[in-house]
Design a protein that fits this description.
Blueprint (H helix, E strand, L loop, with lengths): L8 E3 L4 E3 L72 E3 L3 E8 L6 E2 L2 E2 L1 H17 L6 E8 L2 E2 L2 E2 L3 H5 L3 E5 L3 H4 L13 H16 L4 E8 L10 H13 L4 E6 L7 H6 L6 E3 L4 H19 L3 E3 L14 E6 L6 E3 L11 E3 L7 E4 L1 H9 L4 E6 L18
Parallel strand pairs: 4-7, 4-11, 11-12, 12-13
Antiparallel strand pairs: 1-2, 3-19, 5-6, 7-10, 8-9, 14-18, 15-16, 15-19, 17-18
Amino acid sequence: MSRIGTLKMMVSASSMMVGAIVFAGCGSSGDSTFGDGSGDGDGSGGALTGFGDGDGTGGDGKGNGNGNGSGTAGNVGNVDPTSACATASDGAELQPISLVFMIDRSGSMSNDGGSSTVNVRWNPVKEGLGAFFGDPASSNISASLAFFPIRNGNNTTCSSAAYQSSVVPMTQLPNAAAFSSAFSQNPAGNTPTVPALQGALDAARAVKATGKNVAVVLATDGQPNGCSSNTSGVEAVAAAGAADGIKTYVIGVGPSTGNLNGFADKGGTGSAIMIPTNDAAQVSADLQKAIGQIASSLLGCNYGLPAPPAGQTLDVNAVNVNYTPPGGASKTLAYSADCKNKDGWRYDNVTAPKEIILCADSCATAKAQAGAKLDIIFGCATAVPPGEIDPDGNIR
């Protein structure tokens, strides 16, 4: 086997950091799961258990392994990155998420129109956030926490730079203790959403500059007011963040939030997540669930496929994807051109692939298992179940 070099990959939610990337054709391998037979037969001879269309005898499973051998590939088996046909592979963990939380601490969070709301807004928001910050399932997430308004005596601070500073800096979760004293100041004042969101997005920009996957989570119980804040101003700030690749997720707490969907839409997240406040326990649970949904949505299932070096051509029929759950055994995912096999994967564009995309169920599994690892292996024939279409459009 001619080995031209090695591949180093670090997979993020939507991209791959690439070191030395080299591709080579597969040489002979008698023990490959995916038969790479050589000879003039159909690749089904001897103990061959793979997909060879070999152009030789096929008996010892040597050759290019790109065919329709009669092997036992119904479950596609597992491709071992140490196999002789594997020319390049490396582990790739899903990149952790960083969330910048900006939480409404205006007076209406504790008293709205003369009626106490502290037990259906402020307290359950505090409890829901605390539960999320301490949840072991948050182990692939870091979070910072800030509040608005910031008050200097009876005056509201309007400088976005002030809101860029967090009460709790970016902290690896789970770590409820780090956030336990953050809610000591009681709600008061108006809702200066424009400088607050601007500050949160500026904080997120600093995180993004370090190469991390970051988003802003804005939770509020009302429409903006104070510091010249208005709906169009908030939407403009959110749109500028989205243009810089930073999404703004919006959580509405209470019945009097007004229309928050514009903030989320301009922030690149579609619509706001609304949480009713008629039951305190449910507010806390709903908030924790909403944040979990936000975190899940940030764990993308598109993985950048690096281009081959100059003079080399990527063989789309010689790429495999292995998934390893935390503490579990590695499993080779089957290629599924149309993702009818929801546990499989596909290319974004098979004629000019730039990404590997996990199908619905394999994507959901990867998102739900913090610390899962993905290996992309080059050189061995792509695992395609019999009767399914391979990347070249042929039925295996």
